[in-house]
Design a protein that fits this description.
Radius of gyration of chain B: 13 Å
Low-confidence stretches of chain A: none
Largest interface: A-B, 24 and 21 residues
Number of strands of chain B: 11
Mean pLDDT of chain B: 93
Number of strands of chain A: 11
Strand content of chain A: over 45%
Number of helices of chain A: 0
Largest sheet of chain B: 7 strands, mixed
Distance between the termini of chain A: 41 Å
Helix content of chain B: under 10%
Mean pLDDT of chain A: 95
Oligomer: heterodimer
Shape of chain A: globular
Order of helices and strands of chain A: EEEEEEEEEEE
Order of helices and strands of chain B: EEEEEEEEEEE
Helix content of chain A: under 10%
Shape of chain B: globular
Largest sheet of chain A: 6 strands, mixed
Chain lengths: ~110, ~120
């Protein structure tokens, strides 16, 4: 079955700097890779997703890159802002969906 | 995003007691899901349903049961067989395009279950 590893577990960046969160997956058949943001005490919300036929996708300050050969995908947040502070989860889907354990992102003033 | 409503927000269970968590959606989604979230862990799939009157076990189904009698509703029962039920439970829904999990999921606000 699929296994998803997410790193780092905690990340602190200065406001305005970039943040990168990386995930690796084990099943080469995985074809859908969403990223969810969960603010403290709130529900997870999809922020961006990518499918296996695409190498990169961007939405304003957020981008995701996918390397199918290496079986890893990354979330990039540029020009970080205080409201980016949250826990971010990656996921990979083959016949089921497996989530990473999350990255707690702190944006430092 | 008020499309999915979970209730109650907090729930307490006594030893040997079954409790039921409610999940209702008005997004007209075919697929619905239940996840368990423990501190420092990702979301783990308990059960999912692709269509009314059909549901499938996820990775941690033991000690849980579900029903899907209506498209809008997917209640989760935590039975007395679940020995470690203290967790945050999240319900989600999505469109279904022939196979599950390949569309964005919309989550509810969750139910926090604790043991008395």
């Amino acid at each position: 079955g699929e296994n998803v590893e997410q790193h780092p577990s905690t990340l602190s960046v200065q406001e305005g700097d970039s943040a990168v969160i990386k995930c690796t997956y084990s099943d080469s058949a995985s074809n859908y890779f969403p990223w969810y943001k969960q603010e403290l005490g709130k529900r997870p919300q999809l922020i961006i997703d990518i499918r296996s036929n695409v190498g990169e996708k961007k939405d304003q300050r957020i981008a995701v890159t996918l390397n199918k050969t290496a079986k890893h995908f990354s979330l990039h947040i540029t020009e970080t802002q205080p409201e980016d502070s949250a826990v971010y989860f990656c996921a990979a889907r083959d016949d089921k969906i497996i989530f990473g354990k999350g990255t707690r992102l702190h944006i430092l003033p | 995003d008020g499309g999915i409503t979970q209730s109650p927000k907090y729930l307490f269970r006594k030893e040997g007691q079954n409790v039921t968590l409610s999940c209702e959606q008005n997004l007209n989604h075919d697929a619905m899901y239940w996840y368990r979230q423990d501190p420092g862990q990702g979301l783990r799939l308990i059960y999912y349903s692709q269509i009314v009157n059909d549901f499938q076990k996820g990775d941690i189904a033991e000690g849980y049961s579900v029903s899907r009698e209506k498209k809008e509703s997917f209640p989760l029962t935590v039975t007395s067989a679940q020995k470690n039920p203290t967790a945050f439970y999240l319900c989600a829904s999505s469109t279904w395009t022939g196979s599950p999990f390949n569309q964005p999921q919309h989550f509810g606000d969750g139910t926090r279950l604790s043991i008395l």
